[in-house]
Design goal:
about 350 residues, mainly beta, twelve-stranded antiparallel beta barrel, three-stranded antiparallel beta sheet, globular
Length: about 350
């Protein structure tokens, strides 16, 4: 029997495991995400190596509904990933669309606001930097549009202006009818209304698919994320499809992956002792939830491109690394909130 769609599910956190040293593979991230890079031709990472790492975790990503009270994780003292730097953001629009610098983890926090007349059904989501507790640095806001046949989220660089025609509109997330496939756009024009050379047409920044669960078995979600590849200058290759039949999802489904990067969520490992699926979030996630995930490339399962997880009822951490940008990561996080009856 599947879990309830859109419901956060929590259990008591596990005790802190003994620290274990693991050998890390040296990877050239520039090549791994570069179009035609050498790393794209490497063999897939062996599943056993990934499973061995996951068995050493203390953070859980469980699909099992817990009945115990929520408690703070005791694993915060574990080795943490690279710290988010102190950032001075002069141009917010440029920053949220620019890939994170190599070797730098951008740590953020997502909060969900369900207060108000209609925010129970249409919450507003806010993204802030999570680098300084004394100063909240706003990055993005997102909200699901009303009266749309499919899920459609607007993303803005202003916390109060989430209008489609406003100057603060920075991008959007759109789903298919089933709510299992999503596409992320920037604020460019629909190609049918743009210039003939498509110079002002919208870019597709990412696509997300959730594997359907037709048998109803319990288990963690399975995600695939497709993003444009990077060029030699470590800049995103613009992807402006002519129409919906030329988008990221269609190309990926047709095995046309030229200048595209395919990512997947890291598969949690079943832990017999705790009777739950587990992932190592290095102290950044404190509550078990079906929404918790990590995004990796198959050539290096230890390099976390993005991770997202629950820390309170309406608070989540979201960290991203090169080659992802804030808009891509935030839109992927928004897709995880959307109800997916076919995936639960």
């Amino acid at each position: 029997m599947g879990t309830q769609s859109g419901q956060d599910e929590s259990e008591d956190p596990e005790p802190k495991p003994k620290a274990t040293k693991t050998k890390k593979k040296k990877q050239n991230t520039a090549n791994m995400f570069q179009a035609g890079g050498a790393a794209s031709k490497e063999k897939k990472t062996k599943k056993k190596e990934s499973e061995d790492d996951e068995n050493k975790t203390a953070q859980r990503n469980s699909n099992r509904k817990g009945k115990c009270a929520k408690k703070k994780s005791t694993s915060d003292s574990m080795t943490t990933r690279a710290e988010s730097p102190i950032l001075e953001i002069d141009d917010l629009e440029k920053f949220v669309l620019q890939p994170a610098a190599q070797g730098t983890t951008i740590k953020c926090k997502v909060t969900r606001d369900k207060k108000g007349m209609d925010r129970g059904l249409y919450p507003t989501y806010y993204l802030h930097l999570d680098a300084n507790e004394n100063k909240k640095v706003f990055l993005l806001a997102g909200r699901k549009r009303k009266k749309c046949k499919t899920s459609n989220y607007l993303i803005s660089i202003d916390p109060t202006d989430l209008s489609r025609g406003g100057e603060n509109f920075i991008g959007k997330l759109r789903s298919n009818l089933m709510g299992t496939k999503f596409t992320v756009f920037d604020n460019g024009l629909n190609p049918e209304r743009g210039r003939a050379d498509r110079s002002n047409s919208r870019q597709e920044l990412s696509a997300i698919t959730y594997e359907t669960n037709v048998l109803g078995f319990r288990g963690p979600r399975r995600m695939t994320v497709i993003i444009p590849a990077m060029d030699e200058k470590q800049e995103r290759i613009p992807f402006r499809p002519r129409n919906d039949k030329d988008g990221l999802l269609v190309r990926w489904q047709n095995n046309n992956t030229e200048n595209l990067i395919e990512l997947h969520n890291k598969t949690p490992v079943w832990n017999d002792e705790t009777q739950s699926y587990v992932l190592n979030f290095h102290g950044r996630v404190t509550h078990a939830s079906v929404k918790n995930f990590q995004i990796v490339h198959e050539n290096d399962a230890d390099y976390i491109v993005m991770q997202f997880g629950r820390v309170a009822d309406d608070a989540f951490t979201m960290d991203y690394n090169y080659p992802m940008c804030a808009v891509q990561a935030f839109a992927i996080a928004l897709s995880s909130f959307d109800g997916k009856l076919a995936c639960e």
